[in-house]
What does this fold into?
Amino acid sequence: MKNLIIVLLSLFTITLHAQHMKNTQEFINQLFIAADQHNWQIVEQSFASRVTLDYSSMTGTPANEVSPKQIIDSWKGILPGFDYTHHQVSNFIIEQNDTNAKIFCYGTATHYLENEKENLWTVVGSYDFNLKKKEEKWLITEMRFNFKYQSGNIALSQLAIKN
It folds into this structure.
């Protein structure tokens, strides 16, 4: 009987841990879905009041501590200029406890804008996120993109900014 109780408690703990990891994965998925849908309220609510944002591997610009509003203003300046965007994240590796989480995942962003040349621009890399739980809600405190490669019409980003 004692062994059965130990096994059941172990299974409960494993199940609870898996559910917590699923919640953080869904949280990151929702961020990218909201960005593609231009749902800026959900995007803003995903970030802590100050966020270390690092796209330096792609842009060469050093990491910077910014507000959610600054992130949204930047994304609003380009994403709505495309006809469609599609951010796909996968291969999650999650380390977390009750109040902190570190998440690694692959990321591919496909951008579509009909124009006279090639209509697609794709960016591939991975992300590292740090999250903190505040009042039972996960918030992103750090977001780093690790650029691997891009393909297609790289000039689409400038066309989208002009739109």
About this structure: Residues 124 and 149 are 5 Å apart (CA to CA).
